[in-house]
Amino acid sequence: MNESFRKRYPEFKVFNSSIRRHGDKYYFVAERESRFYLVTGKDSFSFFEREKAPEILKKSFPFLKPACSGCKNSFGFGDRTGYATAGHIRAARKSNFFPIFAQQSARELERTGRSFQQVLDDVVFWCFAEGWSDPFGADADHAKSFETLQEAISAGYTFFTIDPSDKIKILEKQFAGESHKYGFYLKQYSGKKISIKGFSFVFTDDIIIDLVSTYGDALDFVQQCYLFISDKRKDFDFEVSVDETKIPTSPFAHVFVAMELIRRKISFQSLALRFPGKFEKGIDYRGDIKNFTGDLIVHNNIRNYFGPYKISLHSGSDKFAVYREFRNIVADMFHVKTSGTSWIQAMKTIAAVDRNLFIECMAVALKNFEKNSASYEISADISRINIEKMQREDIESMFSDSNIRQLIHISYGSITGVESPQLKNSFFSVIEKNLELYTQFVEEHLNRHITLLS
Question: Is the N-terminal amide bond of 248 cis, ω within 30° of 0?
Fold first, then answer.
């Protein structure tokens, strides 16, 4: 088949890793002039555009439908371009992680103009192209609405990360023991004592009221989301994220949240906590490693007491300083979530092959910095970024600069979204023509993450 096709269509490059047979036809991916096609046939061949291929592939090859990870160690590979999955697959092959290849938040989708379905379709196509036939997951990340959940459910997602941060309230305590809300929790927890590996958690009335004031509405929303998904899907991974706060998650808060999720009969596979220190986007951990590890040990003991469930590390991109300690302490049942780091590798590809286009992208990024930075935790000082210097600067030095990395991290929507169609087209044209280099950059960078976590 391969030789027959090559003789008839010498202008096409066949992805040998993709060749599979189903029934009396062969299926494989071929590329011509940076355009990618699904090809089917044996003696004669049909060509399908990349956008139409996933539906055909999922019908013929069921392993291309996302699956659940359960409590297996897992790694989230976010892809904001639709072209990073090949690099993710090559990195995942060198690990024992259950890969979450399709991972995107509603915020990312809004800025890039993509949909949950498009993100998953891109993953399906590249999984087939790279010959990946093992299970993988699809995460609707940081979901804050039922509309977001419904869109992801309809697209076939299997992993749902609930972000109730808008409902987590750091408030002054107001004792309202007569109210039904506090009265229920006081009756449930007042005087309760739990001992976990040297720590005793005694629930006083003041502590209960403080915890309910902070997390009560958030837990109500988590429960509503769980019931909403349960009504529509039988099997799914459910992650609760309480990390999007300005203060670290206290051990008492972890105990309370875990107990409430269990009491409400919410089957959750992972819990994302806020740890001490700074987990800013696109750069390494900033903070006292001893404080981080001390808190993590306590949280891990709590997880072991109430589990099984995974401890989830969000904003996990490039946090090399904590990976070894995180892996050594948690050992099993953890999830690490990355997203923007693969996007930064896309911009590194642009810088490597078309420096003028890279400068154009960075000018747009600087122009939109204030708007883009509003919803991200970063400390970039853009006054220290010199556009003229970028024209001649060494790539490795440039992409080691934390200010540049954070500027790039938050600017994906301004560069590849609907705001700048001409820039978007130029960006994707370069990525498509240099896909192997982009794949190499992604693979090498994610390998560094996975090696430290393995």
Answer: no
Judge whether 58 and 124 are in contact, CB under 8 Å.
yes
What are 165-188's pLDDT values in tens digits?
999 987 655 554 445 678 999 999
Q: Which residues contact 6 (CB under 8 A, 6 or more apart)?
A: 12, 14
- Please name the CATH architecture into which domain 66-340 falls: Alpha-Beta Barrel (3.20)
- Catalytic residue flag (residue 401): no
Residue 148 in tokens: 């977001």
Q: Annotated catalytic residue: which of 237, 239, 260, 354?
A: 239
Residue 98: strand pairing partners: 74
Q: Nearest-CA neighbor of 166 among 209, 217, 240, 213?
A: 217
Q: Can you give the residue ranges of every domain in the chain?
A: 2-60, 66-340, 342-451
Q: What whole-number distance in Å separates Cα of residue 215 and Cα of residue 137?
A: 29
Kindly report the number of other CB atoms within 10 A of residue 210's CB atom.
20
Please count the other Cβ atoms lying within 10 Å of the Cβ belonging to residue 65.
16
pTM of the model: 0.96
Q: Which of 121, 130, 141, 443 is catalytic?
A: 141
Query: How would you class 4 by CB atoms within 10 Å of its CB: exposed for 0-12, middle for 13-18, buried for 19 or more?
Result: middle
Place of tokens 């429960």: 223
DSSP for 158-221, please give it: -EEEE--GGG---------TTSHHHHHHHHHHTT-EEEETTEEEE--HHHHHHHHHHHHHHHHH
Per-residue pLDDT tens digits for 100-144 = 999 999 999 999 999 999 999 999 999 999 999 999 999 999 999
Q: Is 239 a catalytic residue?
A: yes
